[in-house]
Design brief:
The complex is a heterodimer of chains A (about 260) and B (about 325). By secondary structure, chain A is an alpha/beta fold. Chain A contains 7 helices and 15 strands. In chain A, helix 2 links the parallel strand 6 and strand 7. In chain A, helix 3 crosses helix 4. By secondary structure, chain B is α/β, with parallel strands linked by helices. In chain B, the strands form 3 sheets. Chain B has a 9-stranded mixed sheet, with helices on both faces. A 5-stranded parallel sheet of chain B has the order 14-13-15-16-17. A two-stranded antiparallel ribbon of chain B has the order 2-3.
Chain lengths: ~260, ~325
């Protein structure tokens, strides 16, 4: 079973994240860059499927040069190879364009399953896996907290508001996972050493048969006109409980007409 | 006036609160047209409510097949209707499934998807709150009818009579859209509390709650307020409550009128999911807990003393 894991490099959520005032896009230089947290669970799930069913795990990412650091980390966890779609013209691509580019890149690979994390911590759209399914025409199995593969049938438990749905599809299919699905492994020393010699293929727009004006900021389907920092919440009243703390909250809620 | 397509969520024959908010918001952009996609009988059950909230038309796309397949068939119907109606905008409530439907619809009709709007402005431009509420952005689509998901509680629903003229939609789902089949639905959440996505009031518990059993204290406060129950990642990771209750960076993002955090320190992971709540109340035994930087009202103390007293006091005030 050959698996492609879609991985995104994002600014570390523990750092202050910024938009770039020159073009209102994410400032990727302003903070440390890490593998999008939920994508680590996607990588882990890919490795587990490989361990159970054989095959190869390929990491596919679209992003600037420095995204190679994150590809190496994924390879050190045990993935077999990396594919890095990298091109200046991709800067500022919207979710829909991103999905189209990823679908093109998937077209150069052989796979049975595409796995992604449910959402990225920077944009928080949580729609790219669904859009990749749309762009490739493959079944969408999103929001999985459990994945089972049996021959060419994939089955997931999709998290819902009240529980879960059991959803099945035939391979090839696009999966997205939530972080309840597993505990991602840490790279071992051996894994880190091995990752250094694993292949990482760079793909440009030309390699994918795409033109610069089909992607990036110019072709984006959504436009950010302006942004501003939200005014910080002014700290309110904090009291120490002297035995009437609960009543004090009730009084406060009543004063705000919330009860 | 151009139509505004509004994807309607309902359950057990009642509109979700989010649907009434969407119909209210739609009126500022054009003529609200409700789109009901579901099993036969879904639209009839909510027809009265749709009229009450100003739906001029109700597109009825009903088939048993919608219950059997994930996301893709609904996106096909919305895209088909968008092609026929030439709407000014397409609105959905910000739930995980709706966002996937909306994004796939935008892809099909060649426009763009604006996720998690907190405000809808002229011509379908939106305000979005990003980076866990730290930055507010103003965005629009580059072309076509904007497909917008609106966060719950962003608009106050107000009734306005509409004609609610029923328009049957011929349903034909492509084979490609039937790729992912739902073979079972399992309910895990118990009881009659509102969902996190929809709730006006949320009471959440964190590490300080200490055990699954102790969550009763959180539930007790929630029930006196008719609130949803949420949790921090520490509490869901510990297995005290189901993952579906997690509020935060990797859980649900909420912005209720009132958010009460019990025994939650306020790590960035949690704050990112709740800090745009209108009013925040916190109880924590650690006076240095970062949650107090956000709280409009905070009590430093033992939640097992404070919370039961709070529940009792609210009960008294309600008479």
């Amino acid at each position: 079973m050959n698996i492609v894991v879609l991985m995104k490099q994002v600014p570390d959520t523990y750092a202050e994240r910024k938009l770039n005032p020159s073009d209102n896009t994410l400032d990727r230089e302003a903070s440390d860059a890490v593998i999008n947290e939920i994508d680590e669970y996607a990588i882990e799930e890919g490795l587990r499927l490989k361990e159970a069913h054989g095959g190869e795990v390929t990491i596919l990412t679209m992003g600037p040069d420095r995204a190679t650091e994150s590809i190496r980390k994924a390879l050190s966890m045990g993935a077999d190879k990396g594919v890095h779609v990298v091109d200046e013209a991709l800067h500022g691509s919207c979710a829909i364009t991103t999905a189209k580019v990823l679908a093109k890149a998937l077209g150069t690979l052989e796979y049975d399953v595409v796995i992604a994390g449910l959402e990225a911590t920077d944009s928080r759209l949580s729609v790219v896996p669904a859009l990749v399914a749309e762009a490739t025409g493959l079944p969408q199995l999103s929001g999985a907290r459990k994945v089972t593969a049996d021959g060419s049938t994939l089955s997931i438990e999709r998290v819902t508001e009240t529980g879960y749905d059991v959803v099945t599809a035939s391979t090839p299919a696009v999966l997205s996972v939530v972080e309840k699905i597993n505990d991602p492994r840490y790279p071992s020393f051996k894994g880190i050493m091995a990752a250094k010699s694993k292949p990482v293929q760079a793909l440009s727009l030309a390699d994918l048969g795409l033109a610069a004006d089909e992607v990036g900021l110019a072709a984006a389907t959504t436009v950010v006109d302006s942004f501003e920092e939200a005014p910080p919440r002014s700290a309110g009243t904090v009291v120490k409980d002297e035995g009437t703390g609960g009543s004090a909250i009730a009084d406060y809620l009543a004063s705000k007409k919330l009860v | 006036m151009a139509e505004v397509l509004v994807l309607i969520d309902s359950a057990n024959g009642t509109l979700k609160k989010s649907a009434t908010e969407l119909l209210t918001a739609a009126r500022s952009l054009g003529e609200p047209s409700a789109v009901v996609i579901g099993a036969p009988g879904t639209a009839a059950a909510v027809a009265g409510q749709l009229a009450e909230y100003g739906a001029e038309k109700v597109y009825v796309a009903e088939s048993d097949e919608f219950e059997q397949y994930l996301v893709a068939p609904k996106a096909e119907v919305l895209a088909q209707l968008a092609g026929q109606a030439g709407p000014a905008a397409i609105l959905v409530a910000s739930t995980p499934e709706n966002k996937e439907i909306a994004a796939r619809t935008a892809f099909k009709i060649g426009s763009g998807f604006l996720a998690d709007a907190v405000e809808i402005g002229e011509g379908g431009s939106v305000t979005q709150s990003i980076f866990g509420g730290a930055v507010s952005v103003s965005a629009r689509v580059a072309k076509g009818a904007p497909v917008i998901s609106l966060r719950a509680n962003s608009v106050a629903a107000s009734p306005q009579q509409g004609a609610a003229e029923q328009v049957p939609v011929e349903v034909s789902i492509s084979d490609a859209a039937k790729g992912a089949k739902i073979i079972d639905r399992v309910e895990e959440a118990k009881g009659s509390r509102p969902s996190l996505q929809d709730a006006s009031v949320i009471v959440s518990g964190g590490r300080g709650v200490g055990s699954a059993d102790n969550f009763k204290v959180v539930e007790q406060v929630a029930d006196t307020l008719g609130a949803a129950v949420g949790a921090s990642r520490a509490a869901t990771d510990a297995g005290w409550v189901p993952h579906t209750m997690q509020v935060g960076q990797t859980g649900v993002t909420v912005a209720p009128q009132l958010y009460i955090a019990l025994g939650i320190s306020g790590a960035i992971q949690h704050r990112a999911g709740m800090q745009t709540s209108k009013t925040i109340v916190a109880v924590n035994k650690d006076p240095e807990a970062p949650i107090f930087e956000l709280a409009d009202f905070g009590v430093v103390g033992d939640l097992f003393q404070v919370a039961p007293q709070l529940a009792e006091e609210i009960g008294k005030r309600k008479g």
